[in-house]
Amino acid sequence: MKCLFCKVDDDKVINSRASTDGLSVKRRRECLNCGRRFTTYERVEESPVRVIKKDGSRINFDRNKILSGLLKACEKRPVSTDILETIVSEIESVIYDKFEKEVETTSIGELVMQHLRVLDKVAYVRFASVYREFKDINEFINELKPLMPSAKKIKQKKTSKNGG
Question: Highest taxon of the source (predicted)?
Answer without folding.
Answer: Bacteria
